[in-house]
Design goal:
With 366 residues, the protein is α/β, with parallel strands linked by helices. The chain is built from 15 helices and 12 strands. The strands form 3 sheets. The chain has a 6-stranded mixed beta sheet, with helices on both faces. Strands 3-9-8 form a 3-stranded mixed beta sheet. The two termini are 22 Å apart.
Amino acid sequence: MGFNCGIVGLPNVGKSTLFNALTATAAAEAANFPFTTIEPNVGRVSVPDTRLDKLTEIVKPAKTIPTQLEFVDIAGLVRGASKGEGLGNQFLANIREVDAILHVLRCFEEDNVTHVEGSVDPMRDAETIETELMLADLESLEKRIDPLTKKIRGGDKDAKATLELVELAIDALREGRPARSVTPKDDRVNLFRQLQLLTAKPMLYVCNVEEEAAATGNEKSEAVTKWAREQGSDAIVVSAKIEAEVATLDDADDKAEFLESIGLKEPGLHQLIRAGFRLLSLITFFTAGPKEVRAWTIPLGMEAAAAGGTIHTDFERGFIAAATIAYDDFIACGGEQEAKDAGKMRLEGRDYIVQDGDVIVFRFNV
């Protein structure tokens, strides 16, 4: 089961530098001109989780495997993209394929790095991309009205429900609100998702600041953060340049010393990865045995049988029970057998909603 975040933004805001740092590769060329990233580059990164380290200390497995999150570096967008300007059509097609959006905004001044708009204004840049996405959604929705109307005349009940959602989304977009501001009824959430609207995707704003502001942010990033929260989104602060430097350091002590020297407790990318995880409403459960301790990613609210299916289809098909220990109990007791002896292991059925941090042994028979 894959989950991905698309990294978007205007040209020259630091998208590719951030992507390179995330994946610790040079897969995406970072250069001072628009459209350096033509095809979307994809990188998978480990999700930092101290719980995995503590489980490893107790279990002492042969190997430890973290869960991963996928990032997609998408070509820079310019004003008019919804009408095909620049690489607009390609940008919009690529962004439809991702689960969530990380919108990188330039919050630093640097004379030798040009800005496509001629000046640095992250609020204007945020509005530019949001407007292009809304215009693309509006055009897409308006094209659906006539076909849906014809289906309704033929007695199609699903078409009637879909048209109502389309009209709700159109009203929001015409008022200047993204589709994510629309709250469909519980029984229509999946139908709304099927509209595949760009502005319905969860959005996180990433403020790329100068090195000196990496730990504290600056006036521009503060303005973005305030605005994002008013929109029901969130924002984080990173310095892509610093993250690129950290990515070149192989020694953990060297990394820690470098970060401490600039007032950071951890790389900003760790914060970014965890933020992406939250943005997608994901949780982690663990399996822990002598062969491996492993973290697994599932959506919030997934049932035990389906969670087992993320490991192997046989686990779901032949599901019997999920022997479950809460993470805190596993650590406090000092291991699986100790937790079981203390009465902390529960046998959960297939409909059990897996909780973040659960340590699970799946029992199955096929």
